[in-house]
Amino acid sequence: MKQLKVKLTKDQIQKLGLSGMGFIVLVYVYFSFFLGPLNTSRDSTLRQISDIQTKIAGSKNEMAKTANLEKQAIAATTRFAALKALSPEGAPIAWFPPRIRTFFSGQEIDKATARMENSAPFKEKDLENWMRYSWVIDLPQADFSTLGKAVAALENSEPLLSINRINIKALPEDPQFQQIVLNASTVMVKR
Amino acid sequence: MALHLNLLHEEILQQRQRQRDPLKIGMMVLGALGSVMLAYYMWNAYKTLEIRNRLGQAQHDWAKVEPKVTAAQKRSAELNSIISTTKVLDGMIDNRFFWAPFLEKLSKCVALNAQLTGIDGTIQEDGKVTAAIDGLAAGREPRAAAEELRQLLLEQLGQSYTGVKVEFKSLEDLDTIVNISGTSMAMARFTIGATFATGTAKPTPAPAAARTRTREPQS
Fold first, then answer.
1. Which of A173-182, B181-190, B203-212 has the weakest average pLDDT?
2. Could you give the CA distance from residue B20 to residue A66 in angstroms, rounded to a whole number?
3. How far is CA B186 from CA B112, B134, B136, in A?
4. Which of A45, A147, A165, B2 is most enclosed, with most CB atoms within 10 A?
5. Residues of chain A positioned with their CB less than 8 A from the CB of B214
6. In terms of C-beta density within 10 A (0-12 exposed, 13-18 middle, 19 or more buried), how is residue A38 classed?
């Protein structure tokens, strides 16, 4: 077998070493300062594109859901608007007592007065925009039948009002008539 | 055979050495490799630019969609809030205790020989209703008349409410004699305590008229 022996001079070995170093430097510089950052930038861009595409796909889904929810919530929004409309603009102390007086006048019970006892916000998160007001409604004179009809009408016409206490006393001078005190609480929109 | 003499062998050797110069060959290899690498880099750079264009397009699309999505999300949150609030409010409305049916039932229990002088009804924290009913009963046996009212009340309330308890808190005879339809009758004063659970009775348009009447005490 024939062996090929290349004899390199010292000068040639030095030059070969120099070329090798040049090669290493070239590869290092290429990957560290050119191809590496480029690849990093490309990967980052691809990730951003992927994120945006996911968001766009999600947004279509979100909009479809909202449209669907809008259809389903028609009854709830109508009901909510109706309940909200029960609380007119302004401080309740300004409009609630006259409304009660007018209501009971319409029920043939005169001189009804309502005074506010206290008000407090709800603890429930769903009712953070609503307040509970406690009222004392005095009806100085009414007969039992008229009172019953009036209470029924009040309970039916004011869904957000609930009577917590009812106190009826016969008038000593005229037992046909009674003096009534109602402790009621109402739920109203926070103004 | 002719004899050839190479008089330029040194020059030829030098030329061969120049051609085999490792630095020169290395530089050529590096140059070639560099060219390939540059071409590859350019290709990658072109691809990256293309991807950046795609990113720009995607960002443009997102910029068009984003306000709609934000509005949709806001609306969705609002609708969910409305739905849950309405549900809570409806729950409160449905769980109210209606006093009118109670007053109606009470009025049905009061016989001609009885009169109610006071009613104090309260909804307790636990949702139970307690009512203290004060009144007067007249008759040959006024205590029996009061008991009749208590039993009737128990029966009436039991038809609509659960956990009904109706019992006397007090029942005492009075010295007063009353004249009812020309007959003198003894009187008794009573206080009845009624307790029951709420949430079963429905509102009614109006209770029936109470059978109350004035009584003239006879001394």
1. B203-212
2. 77
3. 14, 17, 10
4. A147
5. 174-176
6. middle
Q: Is B48 on the interface with A (CB under 8 A)?
A: yes
- Say yes or no for a CB contact (<8 Å) between A187 and B82: no
- The candidate with the shortest Cα–Cα distance to B141, out of B120, B116, B163, B113, is B113
Band of residue B213 on the pLDDT scale cut at 50, 70, 90: very low
Please tell me whether residues B84 and B41 are part of one structural domain: yes
Residues 6+ apart with CB under 8 A from B146: B114, B135, B137, B168, B171, B188, B190, B192
Domain end (from B75, B94, B113)? B94
Taking the model in full, what pTM does it have? 0.72
Q: Which domain holds residue B162?
A: 99-218
Nearest neighbour of A127 by CB, restricted to B72, B85, B205? B85
- Residue B211: the pLDDT is 42
Taking contacts as CB-CB distances below 8 angstroms, the residues of chain B near A174 are: 214
Say if residue B217's pLDDT is above 90: no
pLDDT attached to residue A3: 55
- Compute the distance between CA of residue B136 and CA of residue B146 in angstroms, rounded to an integer: 8
The domain ranges of chain A are: 9-72, 88-189
Q: Which tokens is B105 given?
A: 């039932």
Cα B208 to the chain's mean position, in Å?
A: 37
Looking at the fold, whether B150 and B205 belong to one and the same domain comes out as yes
Same domain, B142 and B208: yes
The Cα–Cα gap between B136 and B133 comes to 10
- What fold, for A88-189? Alpha-Beta Plaits (3.30.70)
Asked if the model's pLDDT at residue A138 lies above 80, the reply is yes
* Residues B207, A152 contacting (CB under 8 angstroms): yes
Q: Does B189 touch chain A (CB under 8 A)?
A: no
Interface of A with B in 66-85 (CB under 8 A): 66, 69-70, 73, 76-77, 79-80, 83
The number of helix segments (H) and strand segments (E) in chain B equals: 4, 5
Residue that has been written with the tokens 């007959």 in this structure = B183
Cα separation, A112 vs A141, in Å, equals 9
Query: Is A54 in the B-facing interface, judged by CB distances under 8 Å?
Result: no
Termini Cα distance of chain A: 106
Q: Which helix (H) or strand (E) holds B176?
A: strand B162-180
Among candidate residues A39, A133, A62, the one with its CA nearest the CA of residue A92: A133
Residue B1 lies in a domain: no
